[in-house]
Amino acid sequence: MPALKRLAWSILLILPLAAMADIYRSVDENGQVVYSDVPTLDAERITVRAALLPAPTAAGAPVGQSGEAEEDDAEATVFAEVPREPTAEEIAADRARNCEYSQQMLASYTTSHRLYRQGADGEREYLSADEIDAARARAESNVAAWCD
Description:
Blueprint: H1 2-18, E1 20-27, E2 33-36, E3 44-49, H2 88-111, E4 116-118, E5 124-126, H3 129-146
Antiparallel strand pairs: 1-2, 1-3, 4-5
Helix pairs in contact: 2-3
């Protein structure tokens, strides 16, 4: 039992270290910023920590307890970007793109006499009449779903 306790404590002590990684930032001869896990002579060390972001301010930047954006001169801390819900404008733009694509596919399926798909060997595999009807029905369904 004491060995199990020691193992549990050692895991708890090592766990925070596993959430940190050293990344090195340098600028190449073309002026491009390069990030790597291998240090070079002119590289600056950046410590990356897995952490939760504080609540954003009205301006959208995370703030510390002082109300100012935090900066650490010795080490730059990089946080993962928090996923956000798409805005109404982004959703409308996606729907418009999908509607236009669906209409183009329906027009292509309606005017084409022979439809095909790319086979595994790169050759064309022509669809049967039933498969063409099913493809046209799917295209009509997509237009109805995206262009309402």
